[in-house]
């Protein structure tokens, strides 16, 4: 992905950040908490960054809802969430919070149908119907119609969802709200919702475990978890009418299709993208950072890590099936790094 022109002053500042990696903050320890969705990538990033700089980052993968609560309480140096804060939630925070998108990822529908060998295809109507409790059998005519030639079993469907506050849930129900007015009115989109049907599992790991153990179940997990568990995943019909396999390429297409809107507000959802080859259940994940920092050394270490994740970190994202950020979003992150302050003074170009 090519880089667009960046203002000279900004380039100079980012160069100073790059030069500082591994030099000044080697003894600093940072703490973060939140989203499980990007945890496979964050775990790799934190290990790589520690080896490069000596900075230790202790991250609790407790779900986006927990991460938002901990950053609000000030018990961590940064929060992580797949659900951006609404304007109302931003006003509840003790200080101004800046969203730093890190990567995009896909939420996939994994299922346990031992007798079915072909990947199944699901329309938006079918996905919504399953989670509203209106489609209860695998051989329902609305699923059969999208899967000609596939012998679907006459077995009850067990929908699985998250039981904890979750950004993965936020991405999934944001998709359902985008494609179904009924879902939007009855259930809506949040990190935790009142599910009409199904059973809950804690974390991506909990949902994955329930799917693995329960024949005829279906649930939503992050793409990397589905691959790690060797799950078969559904192809989902997008807004162009195509059944799309979740993949790095189709997730990248979803993020790229929303690049212009994201440049204006990085909180813009990317579900149900109009891009013809986009997988429709995708989202960005964010670090939540207070603009005004209290500890000099931690602030500078955190600033440097985010700058690294925004550049070198992007290079390894695709190895774990996360889509790198569109260039306009990279530039928004660069500009927002310059807004971080300690005691009211910018820290971006200092050591």
Order of helices and strands: HEHEHEHEEHHEHHEHEHEEEHHEEHHHEE
Radius of gyration equals 21 Å
Query: Share of helix among residues?
Result: 25-40%
Number of domains: 2
Q: Remind me, CATH topology of the largest domain?
A: D-Maltodextrin-Binding Protein, domain 2
Largest sheet: 9 strands, mixed
End-to-end distance: 30 Å
Mean pLDDT: 90
| Record field, number of beta strands | 15
Q: What form results from the Cα inertia axes? A: elongated
CATH structural class of the largest domain: Alpha Beta
Report low-confidence residues grouped into runs of 5 or more: 1-16
CATH architecture of the largest domain: 3-Layer(aba) Sandwich
Helix/strand/pairing category:
alpha/beta
The H-level CATH homologous superfamily of the largest domain, spelled out, is Periplasmic binding protein-like II
Q: In oligomeric terms, what are we looking at?
A: single chain
Strand content: 15-25%
Number of alpha- plus pi-helical segments: 15
Overview of the molecule:
By secondary structure, the chain is of the alpha/beta class. The protein folds into 2 domains: 29-103 and 284-346, D-Maltodextrin-Binding Protein, domain 2; 106-264, 3-Layer(aba) Sandwich (D-Maltodextrin-Binding Protein, domain 2). The chain is 40% helix and 20% strand. The protein contains 15 helices and 15 strands. The strands form 3 sheets. Strands 1, 2, 3, 4, 6, 7, 8, 9 and 12 form a 9-stranded mixed sheet that branches. Strands 5-10-11 form a 3-stranded mixed sheet. Strands 13-14-15 form a 3-stranded mixed sheet. A hairpin with a 2-residue loop joins strand 14 (341-342) and strand 15. The longest helix is centred in the first third of the chain and has 15 residues, at 39-53. The two termini are 30 Å apart. Keywords: Phosphate transport, Signal, Transport. This is Phosphate-binding protein. One of its GO terms (cellular component) is ATP-binding cassette (ABC) transporter complex.
């Amino acid at each position: 992905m090519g880089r667009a022109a960046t203002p000279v002053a900004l380039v100079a500042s980012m160069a100073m950040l790059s030069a500082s990696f591994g030099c000044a903050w080697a003894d600093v320890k940072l703490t973060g908490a939140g989203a499980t969705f990007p945890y496979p990538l964050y775990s790799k990033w934190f290990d790589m960054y520690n080896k490069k700089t000596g900075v230790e980052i202790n991250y609790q993968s407790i779900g986006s809802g927990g991460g938002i609560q901990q950053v609000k309480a000030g018990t961590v140096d940064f929060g992580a969430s797949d659900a951006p804060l609404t304007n109302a939630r931003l006003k509840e925070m003790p200080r101004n919070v800046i969203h730093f998108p890190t990567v995009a990822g896909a939420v996939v529908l994994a299922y346990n149908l031992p007798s079915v060998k072909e990947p199944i295809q699901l329309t938006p109507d079918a996905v919504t119907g399953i989670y509203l409790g209106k489609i209860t059998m695998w051989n329902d005519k609305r699923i059969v119609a999208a899967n000609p030639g596939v012998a679907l079993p006459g077995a009850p469907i067990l929908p699985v969802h998250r039981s904890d506050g979750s950004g993965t849930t936020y991405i999934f129900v944001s998709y359902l709200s985008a494609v179904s007015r009924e879902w939007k009115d009855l259930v809506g989109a949040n990190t935790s919702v009142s599910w009409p049907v199904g059973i809950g599992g804690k974390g991506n790991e909990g949902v994955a475990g329930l799917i693995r153990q329960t024949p005829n179940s279906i649930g939503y997990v992050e793409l990397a978890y589905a691959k790690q568990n060797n799950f078969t995943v559904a192809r989902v019909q997008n807004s162009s009418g195509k059944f799309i396999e979740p993949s790095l390429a189709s997730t990248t297409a979803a993020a790229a299709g929303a690049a212009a809107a994201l440049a204006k507000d990085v909180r813009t959802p990317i579900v149900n993208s109009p891009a013809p080859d986009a997988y429709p259940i995708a989202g960005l994940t964010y670090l939540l950072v207070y603009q005004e920092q209290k500890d000099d050394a931690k602030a500078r270490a955190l600033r440097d890590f985010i700058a690294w994740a925004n550049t070198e970190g992007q290079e390894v994202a695709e190895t774990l099936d996360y889509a790198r950020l569109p260039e306009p979003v990279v530039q928004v992150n660069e500009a927002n790094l310059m807004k971080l302050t300690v005691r009211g003074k910018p820290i971006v170009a200092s050591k």
